[in-house]
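QUALITY CONTROL LOG
STEP: pairwise intake check
CHECKER ROLE: data steward
CRITERIA: each record must contain a sequence immediately followed by its structure tokens, with no blank fields

ENTRY 1 OF 2
RESULT FIELD BELOW
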Amino acid sequence: MAAQSVPVTGAASSIDIDTMEIHTVEMHTGGEPVRIVTSGYPALAGATLLDKRREARERHDALRRLLMFEPRGHAEMYGAVLVEPDHPEADLAVLFLHNEGYSTMCGHAVIALGRWAVDNGRVVAREPETPVAIQCPCGLVRTVVEVRDGRAGAVRFRSVPAFAFARQAMVETRDWGPLELDIAYGGAFYAVLPAASIGLDLSPASVRALTDAGEAITAAAAEQIALQHPDDPDLGFLYGTIFTDGADRFEEAPTRNLCVFAGRQVDRSPTGSGVTARVALQWARGEIALGQARRFESVTGAVFTGVVVEETAAGRHRAVVVEVSGKAHYTGEARFTLEPDDPLGEGFLLR
């Protein structure tokens, strides 16, 4: 393995070491980390959230690397930066960070943010349920947070319209030849296929092989299938690959999936936007009905529930609104600084 060292200063961004102090709240959803940046990140001037996303990528990417990479993070770290919303109905707005860049939607982070917003007074807690509207780069995501004795608990959210973009698409791969897969959008685009189609299962012992395969399949599908989103060109990219157990028709038992995204990052949770995409696919194939709740299990055993609550449209695509529910937990708080003589403090990845 080699250390990939990325400097905190450069043509596109810089950090003032003397004044830098970043505060975070640390959470996880189903084992997937969520590092919520509550203060210390520079104000962004972009008019829209997608403008702010571009600004963060072009001018402040050093901070993403500093927070996501080692020694403060790791290759599987995930972050959420609170920014000023521009949507009139939003209670808060967020940019999502990971080892490779900036995602457009993240369900596991939305679940954590919903609970955090209630517990920390960003919205006034009301029992038994408190609505929290979170503006994400993909659009406004409406969450409902269960509240008992003034404390937030489980969260459910309704994301932007989800749809099947391509069904039974053929993609040429180096290692498996032509593969049949589906492409679906659930706030981000995913390639979806059964793990068995490449001779693997979804056991923990297969995670390394699935990671290798997910990276390769995402790259092949992104090159061969042109993606377009009807709302904004910035949304038209393939975020990752979801391997399933093939159990798509409705039944009471959970169906398992594993998402490989941002290159080689493996989601420990069932993947909120991935569950949204899978439900949209199941609905498009007639495998799940309106109002029929299905459970989705991750490699950690964590479970999200997904249900189609409304039929709608996204441009020319028949689409659905999917409600996903899960629970997040706190793991701590942090105050991050950078010493000027630290040769590794600027961030690196060991792979």
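ENTRY 2 OF 2
RESULT FIELD BELOW
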Amino acid sequence: MSGQAYDPGGEGARMSFDGAMSYGDYLRIDALLSLQVPVSDAHDEMLFILQHQTSELWMKLAVHELGAAREALLAGRMAPMFKMLARVSRIFEQLNNSWDVLRTMTPADYTRFRDSLGQSSGFQSYQYRMIEFMLGNRNANMLRPHDHVPPVRDWLAAELARPSFYDEAVALLFREVHGGTEAMPAPLLDAPHEARSEIQEAWRRVYEDVDRYWTLYELGEKLVDLEDYFRRWRFNHVTTVERVIGFKRGTGGTSGVQYLRRMLGVELFPELWHVRGAL
């Protein structure tokens, strides 16, 4: 060994970035790292902020992918659409893993800065609300927490005015299975999707003749995968909140764990789950 420090520049790596775009420039690292601003002196508040900011970044990607997947579905570009749905499932897998880090925060740790949060709460995440709206869990009442930010409210309201991703999937299902001989159930634009027997029956035909309806079968399974990861994220949310604050009310005024447990019962694509018992 020569004892000399390794110099990547000797192998062609650029070492000077005057007038050139660097990694930090491209990703705007300085701006990104300036956004973590604790409002208390509690050590664990940095963890809490980073957990939620990174979750919002992953949700931004989920919204991006779901929007593109819906457009691909409408254009009949099934292969790219399947890839996008698979990516959203992996995003929620990543979000699930992040709860393990937050669970290292104990009730005593959280109590040190909880009052500093005021009325802010994950309940108010408009990107999470958009993901639910896009997938079909729609509730016009959930626009109200965003009335104070009109562009956000308008963004969410525009989603409620158009068919969800699942509505578009059901439209394709009926076109392929019934060939236009049976009318598709009307989308519920501003209400949660509820299980409907005629949709379940169409999915049953797909699952009982996989070779004939392979593309629809693959679509159904991709949606089940997505909801599987989404449910795990909700479950981990509940258990983490119970572990840290017990049954206290949420900072945003919800009933806390009781509210989150109620959300565990929500089914995004109920017919795809119920049809399994009918095969």
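INTAKE CHECK: passed for both entries
DESCRIPTIVE NOTE, ENTRY 2: The mean pLDDT is 90.
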